[in-house]
Amino acid sequence: MEALEAIMTRRSVRKFGKKQIPDAVIEKILKAGTYAPSALALQPWAFVVVQDQNFLREVSDYVRPIMISLMKDAHNGMSDAFRQLLESPGYSIYYDAPTVIMVVGKTGSRFREIDCSLAAENMMLAAHALGIGSCWIGSTEVAYGNRELMAGFRIPEGYSPVGTIVFGYPEENPGVHDKHPANVTWVR
Ligand SMILES: Cc1cc2nc3c(=O)[nH]c(=O)nc-3n(C[C@H](O)[C@H](O)[C@H](O)COP(=O)(O)O)c2cc1C
Questions:
Q1: Candidates 102, 114, 136, 177: which one to mutate for ligand 1, based on the most atoms within 8 Å of Cβ?
Q2: Domains of the chain, first to last
Q3: Separation CA 137–CA 178 (nearest Å)
Q4: Cβ(137) to ligand 1 under 6 A?
Q5: Using an 8 Å Cβ cutoff, are 115 and 42 in contact?
Q6: pTM attached to this predicted model
Q7: Which residues contact 87 (CB under 8 A, 6 or more apart)?
Q8: Torsion sign over Cα 105, 111, 113, 118
Q9: What percent of the chain has pLDDT over 90?
């Protein structure tokens, strides 16, 4: 798949098959992450690959009710749809994806969030090109303050979380969608 095609056709996927992604394919996705640009070429990221479904369910069960209460006053199309999802029985914030990758950044590194987000997008695009669906799961943030639970992610010393992305073989095809045109200012 060409780069532009991958960019234009990637969608967030929220329904996955149970089949695990082979390690060799996960390695390719991780490698694509490390090829992202980073300030001063510091590559201040590390990746935690989580495939323990019991642990992911535990994190989801902790996050879900907090998210529901945080979103109780948000009312627009997207929030209503997301709240409905959160409230549906058996819902996991990780959509039961077989693999979840947490991108963690070197604590204190000046551009860690930007660098790690670039790595994350590279991984999502690479996954898409390899026939694997993904979705960034911001809701994990709700658990960051729970040290006991977060210990389960086994984040290496000196790093802290930037984002969590689910990966798996898609069982839905959300289809290409239109994006709002950007507000562009040309200076020339
Ligand atoms: C920082 C960030 C946090 C997100 N958090 C969630 C989330 O917690 N749950 C979810 O289902 N999707 C989440 N998403 C996915 C967005 O909803 C999705 O990217 C957006 O609706 C655009 O759709 P697309 O990715 O298919 O283009 C998140 C995306 C980003 C960039």
A1: 136
A2: 3-62+92-168 (3.40.109.10)
A3: 21
A4: yes
A5: yes
A6: 0.96
A7: 68
A8: negative
A9: 86
